[in-house]
Amino acid sequence: MRMLQTATWRLGSALALAALISGCASNKTQRVEAPSQAQPSKPAASSASTTPASSGGRYAMNGDAYPVEPPDVSTVPDAEPRIEAPSRAGNRSTYEVWGETYHVMPDSRGYAKQGTASWYGEKFHGYATSNGEIYDMYKMSAAHRSLPLPTFARVTSLDSGQSVIVRVNDRGPFHSDREIDLSYAAAARLGILDNGTGRVKVEAVDPERWLAGDRAPSSAPVAASRAPATSPPGEQPRRVPAPDAAPAQSASAPAAYADTPGEGAIYLQIAALGSAEGAQQLQKRLENELPMGVRVMSDANVYRVQVGPVGPAQETRAREELRQAGFPQVFIVR
Fold first, then answer.
1. Is 327:285 a contact under the CB 8 Å cutoff?
2. Whether the bond into 35 is cis, omega within 30 of 0
3. Which positions fall inside the SPOR domain (predicted)?
4. Residue 101 contacts by C-beta under 8 Å, 6 or more apart in sequence?
5. Is residue 227 a part of any domain in this protein?
6. Which tens digit of pLDDT belongs to each residue from 132-158?
7. Which of 92, 112, 128, 163 could form a disulfide with 271 if both were Cys (CB 3.0 to 4.6 A apart)?
């Protein structure tokens, strides 16, 4: 009898212990789920799926989204260029994403490039950008792979002619066929929200020149009759004069640049623009500032501003003068 009572007591204790463990497990599951259930109420994330993936971070997530109730962003003002120190974060000379290595430019002045723009919205809204700021999709900002952070840039739609000024404070897009990622507001202003992408021209803005009142170059469309003609194959490229350039200017250049550079002469390309008028304005400005020739070469609606010809002995001096004029990065054209 005593053995039966002992066995019964042990069985009851075991059942009670099992029930207790089951209850604890149930309570633990509920506590883990609670934060996930509350997450949609946070303005920084659109859904539970916005939690960054452990490998690749937010760039490994699929899909993006419009705001649930899209506000009117047509009157959101452009970013206002101002002189800022480089961000402490996001400016490493090289970095790696998805196994690809990218290089950050030391200076943005003179940067101009055409390409495809995309945009990013709800999926990234409220997340930290590469320079440590918080991404706000309703402000005029952008992401770029190589421009230093922050950089102010003029972005012009090559389809509509609309232009905005954004502040680059993030890295991306990490797709080889894209040039820049725009905020929701910037994309809306340029009219590329519905298509998702658009053809644009990106030009870095020099805050010092901006604050001094120099807002060039212009993004206005130019009539075809005003566009400089492309030189036929094999023919020596011809210089495109500025609208009111004085022929006597070239005669006043120092002898080092006025003389024929001889064999091995090169041109230094400082910009490639999508506007003939903008290229001619830049040409005119440089002719007034530099003691060397400036030409504009056109090819498929791209207008390349080049300085020269420069001989081997003159290249170092020419590069220094271009750097002082605000163009530290140039490309050699032979």
1. no
2. no
3. 260-334
4. 94, 95
5. no
6. 999 999 999 999 999 999 999 999 999
7. 112
Are the C-beta atoms of residues 283 and 250 closer than 8 Å to each other?
Answer: no
Give a yes or no: residue 28 inside a domain.
no
Question: How is residue 270 written in tokens?
Answer: 């400082």
Helices (H), 265-328: 276-289, 315-324
Q: What is the DSSP string of 209-265?
A: HHHTT--PPP-----GGGSPPPPPTTSPP-----TT--GGGGGGS-HHHHS---TT-
pLDDT digits (tens, 9 = 90+) for 58-101: 555 556 667 777 788 989 999 999 989 999 999 999 999 989 99
Phi, psi of 7 (to 5 degrees): -65, -40
Cα distance between residue 311 and residue 315, in whole Å: 6
- Summarize pLDDT for 168-186 with one digit per residue, the tens: 999 999 988 999 999 999 9
Same domain assignment for residues 299 and 163: no
Closest CA to 294 of 153, 262, 330: 330
- What is the domain extent for residue 251? 244-333
Q: Return the C-alpha torsion angle 79, 85, 87, 91, nearest 10.
A: 110
Contacts of 289 (CB under 8 A, 6+ apart): 325
Other CB atoms within a 10 A radius of the CB of residue 264 amount to 12
Residues 165 and 178: their CA atoms lie apart, in Å, by 18
pLDDT of residue 323: 76
If one counts the domains in the chain, the total is: 2
CATH of the domain at 295: 3.30.70.1070
